[in-house]
Design brief:
By secondary structure, the chain is mainly alpha-helical. The chain has 26 helices and no strands. The chain is flat and about 80 Å long. The mean pLDDT is about 95.
């Protein structure tokens, strides 16, 4: 390799063995960025990471469809909030992780990333030296202790927020439970419960927690939280409705519904937590309008229960036939009754097992399965041959 090429790469931040990137850039080294960018993908990534490359070149580099290029921009110490927001919008974990830890990320972007499902992203936000107090306030109620550990020692974590959590029954390091303050208001406890799963656990233990807050805790997706809340709120009338609707007495499983639910009771359960929604989605007399709303819930377990329900209309079935969760689509394809249009959608499913089930469904028109004779999956082709054979017999 020419010495001048190696010198340019090293000056731009490459390791001597070219296996990766240096954490520090060569002080005072002049870098010919245009030449570097012209050297191909490796040179472009080196340029994108360098703090002196300049915004015009970064704008050109971000036009690349390669996520590695966007990740390199997100690592650039000089990347401004607009560039970082652009990078955060890319649906790629590696890029989001770099943005979450970047000191230049805006409050809006950090707030959005602090709500991500992946714990590693929330940890990165909690470690960000410029994470604002408002974002840390919510992360202090995060259900994962690794996130709270970084919040507890963050310079921007407001002492007023720490005192509130301690009053609610948290230790000052946010790593466990302490004594509760009986003077804390029910409104303050409810706000904590709405901020995150740790806040819900604090509310489940506090003597001043209001009935409305307990209703959300009793219908949480977390069975352990439901159990803890039940010990403190055994007299709530909601429990009777849940049990009548098909929840076990201990809220840890399902049983046969005891009675039909009124329209008001159905609306009430639909507005509560995932457990209430799952119970409601299983009830055989739940109204179709309520089921249509549950079919768009973020919880795939709720959507799966809706997919099994005999009361959903064709428009809801068509939406569920393209659900992102294969469990939902599998529940749908195994229903007793599906229209030809819904089955047509399922015939194009990315999972061979679902295509096989759609082919085997006797409601699927024979003419609709003809194109699957050349399916890439042998099981699908075999199911088509069997259907064709039985149809011609």
């Amino acid at each position: 390799m020419p010495a001048e090429v190696m010198a340019l790469w090293l000056a731009a931040g490459a390791l001597p063995d070219l296996s990766g990137f240096s954490e520090a850039f060569t002080s005072g080294a002049e870098v010919d960025f245009d030449t570097l960018i012209g050297m191909g993908p490796w040179g472009k990534v080196l340029a994108a990471r360098h703090p002196a490359v300049g915004r015009p070149r970064l704008d050109r580099l971000r036009e690349s469809a390669d996520w590695k290029m966007i990740a390199a921009i997100a690592e650039n110490p000089s990347a401004d909030p607009e560039l970082l927001e652009y990078a955060a919008d890319l649906d790629r974990f590696d890029v989001k992780l770099r943005v979450a830890g970047h000191p230049g990320a805006s409050t809006e972007v950090l707030d959005r990333l602090s709500s991500e499902v992946d714990t590693r992203l929330r940890v990165a936000v909690a470690q960000n030296p410029n994470a604002p107090a408002a974002v840390l306030r919510r992360l202090a109620c995060d259900g994962t202790s690794a996130v709270r550990a970084y919040v507890a020692v963050h310079a921007n974590f407001a002492e007023a927020d720490r005192r509130l959590l301690v009053s609610a029954g948290a230790r000052s390091d946010l790593m466990g439970f302490g004594e509760t303050d009986s003077a804390l208001s029910a409104e303050a406890i409810d706000r904590l419960a709405r901020r995150g799963h740790w806040g819900e656990w604090l509310a489940a233990r506090h003597p001043n927690t209001a009935a409305g807050t307990f209703e959300r805790l009793l219908t949480s997706a977390d069975p352990m939280l439901r159990e803890a809340a039940l010990r403190r709120a055994a007299q709530l009338d909601l429990l009777g409705v849940l049990r009548d609707a098909g929840s076990r007495e201990d809220l840890q499983g399902f049983t046969e519904p005891r009675r039909a639910l009124s329209e008001e009771e159905q609306v009430r359960l639909a507005g509560l937590g995932p457990w209430a929604n799952r119970v409601l989605a299983r009830h055989p007399q739940t109204r179709s309008a309520v089921l249509a709303g549950l079919a768009t819930d973020n919880d795939p377990q709720i959507r799966r229960e809706v997919a099994r329900h005999e009361g959903i209309g064709e428009s809801v079935q068509i939406g569920l036939a393209s659900d992102v969760s294969h469990d939902v689509r599998w529940a749908l394809v195994n229903r007793g009754s599906l229209s030809a249009e819904v089955l047509g959608v399922l015939l194009g499913d990315p999972l061979p097992t679902i295509r096989v089930a759609a082919v085997q469904n006797r409601r699927t028109p024979t003419a609709a399965i003809g194109s699957l004779r050349f399916d890439l999956d042998e099981d699908v082709r075999a199911a088509v041959r069997e259907r064709m054979s039985s149809a011609s017999a």
